[in-house]
Every structure is written in C-alpha cells, then in structure tokens.
Amino acid sequence: MKLPNFTRYPLIPVIIQDFKTLKVLMLGYMNVEAYNRTIEENYVYFYSRSRKSLWKKGEKSGHFQKVEKIFFDCDEDTLLIQVDQKGDATCHEGYVSCFYRLINNDNFEIVEPKVFDPKEVYKKRP
C-alpha cells in the first residue's frame, strides 16, 4: 500500500472536508507521528508549526474530527481527509469553517454566521 511520502516531505498539508456537505473546513499540517495517530485512533491529529508539537483536533474545544475517508494526491505530498465534524464548528474563531471570509476587492466580508463564542469555549480551566 502506498502512503504519503514523509521521507521526502516531513511535514505535509492536510485539507479537512466535511464528509456530508463537502465543505472545506480547514487546512493543517501532519508529520508522520500525526498521520500514524490519526490512522490508529480514527480522529484527526495535526502537527503545530508554531508550537512544534502534536495536537488532536478538538482536544481543547471538544469539536473533534472523526475520520471517514483519507485521500492523498498524485505527488504523495498532500492529504484530503473527509471527516464527521463533532461539535458545532472547526474554526477556533467560532465558525463552522476556517474559510469564513470572502475577499471582495481590497476588503473582505464574513460569509457565514458564528456558531459559538470562543471566549466561552476556550476559557481557562482550573
């Protein structure tokens, strides 16, 4: 079975898409460890480029992504994962998709409603 080429590309982009609606929810990155954990647990893991660490999508918000299908592209350097989005949204800003802003000339407009308040979801826990 062919798999993504992590030897050639140690960090690969991953497009997350809603399994039912086909709406693109987000873009993240995986290393081989994140990929293996995703395969083992059937929930999406990413590698954070800013924190330089592995993280499970939803570990803080409760908005997990259950894997339905995984595709990889012809160059073996990008994944498309179709998920069953658990919880209200994907975006940490409170929107269903991270792609909630539409560029219009030199401005942007918000094209989908906010479904949760990030201050409530991500408040510090004791």
Structure description:
The protein has 126 residues and is mostly beta strands. The chain has one domain (12-121): Phosphoribosyl-AMP cyclohydrolase (Ubiquitin-like (UB roll), Roll). It is built from two helices and eight strands, in the order ββαββββββα. A hairpin with a 4-residue loop joins β3 and β4. 23% of the residues are buried. The mean pLDDT is 92.
Topology:
Layout: E1 12-18, E2 24-30, H1 32-41, E3 45-48, E4 53-56, E5 65-72, E6 79-85, E7 101-104, E8 107-110, H2 118-121
Parallel strand pairs: 1-6
Antiparallel strand pairs: 1-2, 3-4, 5-6, 7-8
Please provide a brief summary of the model:
With 126 residues, the protein is mainly β. It has a single domain (12-121), classed as Ubiquitin-like (UB roll), CATH 3.10.20.810. The protein contains two helices and eight strands; from the N terminus they run ββαββββββα.
- List the domain count as a whole number: 1
Shape: globular
Strand content: 35-45%
The second-level CATH architecture is: Roll
CATH class: Alpha Beta
Q: What brief labels describe this structure?
A:
4-stranded mixed β-sheet; 36% strand; two-stranded antiparallel ribbon; globular; mainly beta; Ubiquitin-like (UB roll); 2 helices; 126 residues
